[in-house]
Amino acid sequence: MAPATPPGRTGRPPVTSRAAIVSAARSLIDREGWERLTIRKLAADLNIGPTTLYHHVRNKQDLLLLLLNEYAAQIALPDLPEVPRDRIVTVTAALHDMLAAWPWAAEVLTVDGFLGLLDEPALSIVELIVDAAVDHGCTLEQAVDVFRSLWYYTVGEVLVRAHSSRSQADGEHLVQRATFRNLESPRLPRLSAVASQWRALSARDTYRQGLEAFVDGLLAQATAARTDQSVHGPADQSTSAPPVRSSAGRVIS
User: Same domain for 152 and 53?
Assistant: First the structure.
């Protein structure tokens, strides 16, 4: 005769797959926000104990990395142009669209050091932008600066729009002050002229237009600096300020 099942146990513990964890975590984040994601809450949604979930993820950071890497691995990039400048624009715009579809990921990735924890599929976008900048004529250091500048611009635009949409969805509309709508100030002539149109103008999607102008400026600045250095060479040390001497005549370093 088979032994009786101990009280409170109905057989083997449920098997939790990676896909089930990712799906449940995404649902929880969509419902409550990534800041409120915890191992205990996720385990409850999966109908398992936290200890069982810890067999798959070590902590919240590990869980967020799992989500981001899974998401990045599913992103299909568009066909990339041959021209390096156009390649940077295309890849950065694809990054923007990816983050806009999942804006909480942009919030997570703004934490210092988080980007360096991602897997190769997620980092491939960074590689493509840096590589295109080098192909354009940037040094590797300049190419990293190009990426970082585009990253801040892109993430900032995504987060501003996401937060604005969230506030509107929650009914937290910012009421524009009547004094601004009807602004007539001699000290603010340009704002006075555009105040009545400000809300409509700021609602326009100008990301791509700004991105192209930003890329052109960054690449021009980087390559101009390189050209200037190759023509004139490093700064002439003989033109530096004379050494400062003490009252005793000794050079003060």
Answer: no
Structure tokens at 93: 């715009």
116 and 216 part of one domain: yes
Contact in structure between 159 and 103 (CB atoms under 8 Å): yes
What is residue 176's predicted lDDT score, i.e. its pLDDT?
55
- Its pTM stands at 0.75
Closest to 98 in 3D by CA, of 158, 46, 150, 13? 158
* Domain end residue (candidates: 44, 73, 102): 73
Closest CA to 64 of 24, 102, 105, 28: 105
Helix (H) or strand (E) holding 244: strand 244-245
Whether 191 maps to a domain, the answer reads: yes
- Identify the CA nearest to 158 among candidates 210, 115, 121, 233: 210
Residues 6+ apart with CB under 8 A from 123: 115
Quick: pLDDT tens for 222-246: 988 776 666 555 545 444 445 545 4
For residue 34, the one-letter residue type is: W
Q: What are phi and psi of 124, to 5 degrees?
A: -60, -30
